[in-house]
Amino acid sequence: MTTRRDALKHSAVVAGLLAATGLFPTLARASWTKSAFDARSIADAVKAYGAGAAPAESKDVTLTAPDIAENGAVVPMGVATTLPNVKHLLLLVEKNPSALVAKFDVSDAVEANFLTRAKMGQSSDVYAVAITADGKALFAKKEVKVTLGGCGG
After folding, report:
1. What's the Cα-to-Cα distance from 148 to each of 72, 75, 98, 125, 152, rounded to whole Å?
2. Which end of the chain is more exposed for a tag (fewer CB within 10 A), N or C?
């Protein structure tokens, strides 16, 4: 019978071996794209995730966000789509210092419906972008008015 202490000890050994071979850090950062999170514009962030053409508006992409956010530090947002072959769903805030707020990886095993909270420094347009496997980018847009800024404001 394996005790909890033995299981933790074995897990620590495996994690140490993975870290020593260099596999652990690579797997932990597999979905991180620095250029996307450093992007200052919507187009640059979308392009960093493989969108070939300019994004087109679509009724198949749904963005949920409040019309007026009382506190910009915690603005609830949601993104969903019914499109087939979606690879990534992005949430972007146009006037934030870094436009990309969140990225969700989608597969056939995952329902493309996500909720999160984001910081908004000021009133801005918010975009939900779906990027398909063939490089098409489709979006929904909504203006969110912020009464109290969340990014140091």
Report:
1. 6, 11, 19, 16, 10
2. N
Question: Is 30 strand, coil or helix?
Answer: coil
User: Is residue 61 in some structural domain?
Assistant: yes
Note whether 127 and 64 are within 8 A (CB). no
Range of the domain at 21: 1-30
Question: Would residue 135 count as lying in a domain?
Answer: yes
φ/ψ bin of 135: left (φ > 0), alpha (ψ from -120 to 50), beta (otherwise): left
Same domain, 42 and 103: yes
pLDDT 10s digits, 44-76 = 888 888 887 778 899 999 999 999 998 888 999
Which residues are CB-contacts of 87 (< 8 A; sequence separation ≥ 6)? 49, 50, 105, 106, 131, 132, 133
Residues 2 and 64 in one domain: no
